Amino acid sequence: SPPTPHHRAQGSILYYARGIAEAQAGGPVLDAIVTVPAFFGQRQRQALADAATLAGLNLMGLINTHTAAALQYGIERDFVNRSQTIVLYDMGSGSTEVALVKYNTYTVKEAGKPKVYNQLEVRDVDWDESLGANLLDMALARHFAAEFSAKAKLEVDVTALPKAMAKMRRQVRRTKEMLSANSAAPCTVEELYDGIDFQSTITRDAFEVLAKDFFSRATAPLKRIMERNGLQPGDIDAFELLGGGS
């Protein structure tokens, strides 16, 4: 069947990624292993495989995102004479995955001599496929939009205006990032609506109240993993944050 617009969009993204890889490698990139979220079903995985073909890639396989991250973590470390249990927490713009991974080593004889290799086991994985950093952006954007409407005494619902909300969301991302290192942060948007500028400030405490439900959802996958495996915080050797939303 002919490619759908969705397939073409995915193919364009992979083609762009291929270009970045080729620029870094200094030559053509034809073979690829593509990561996928753990919650992707067979149809979604097949759609991604079709998109890789559209991008001119020879797809050698699909691998779960958390497994790829676990491999990278293990490659860079030595687990001789010790085991390690870690949590990989990956929040993107639209979804969140949490994985529990255990590392240790095994020994084999090669040419009569012992050789030690790292090995890993993904013990558990959990996710919230609709929880991502975009929800934080929207919560902030709606908060400031309501404040703008009240200050400007507007009868129109600013949240229903795509152009105004696009401007607001661009700014609130910066506001959100500033709050990670500051107790308060400004939000300024020129000509938000009908030529009217918007300027305000929000404290980190106010933001945390605003995002209370978000933070409850953000910890839920981790809590489920800890409970299922009978673990306490002290049982975890490392907690690795992945993804742009983390």
UniProtKB/TrEMBL annotation:
<dbReference type="GO" id="GO:0030968">
    <property type="term" value="P:endoplasmic reticulum unfolded protein response"/>
</dbReference>
<dbReference type="GO" id="GO:0034663">
    <property type="term" value="C:endoplasmic reticulum chaperone complex"/>
</dbReference>
<dbReference type="GO" id="GO:0005524">
    <property type="term" value="F:ATP binding"/>
</dbReference>
<keyword id="KW-0547">Nucleotide-binding</keyword>
<dbReference type="GO" id="GO:0140662">
    <property type="term" value="F:ATP-dependent protein folding chaperone"/>
</dbReference>
<comment type="similarity">
    <text>Belongs to the heat shock protein 70 family.</text>
</comment>
<keyword id="KW-0346">Stress response</keyword>
<keyword id="KW-0143">Chaperone</keyword>
<dbReference type="InterPro" id="IPR043129">
    <property type="entry name" value="ATPase_NBD"/>
</dbReference>
<dbReference type="InterPro" id="IPR013126">
    <property type="entry name" value="Hsp_70_fam"/>
</dbReference>
<protein>
    <submittedName>
        <fullName>Heat shock protein 17</fullName>
    </submittedName>
</protein>
<dbReference type="Pfam" id="PF00012">
    <property type="entry name" value="HSP70"/>
</dbReference>
<keyword id="KW-0067">ATP-binding</keyword>
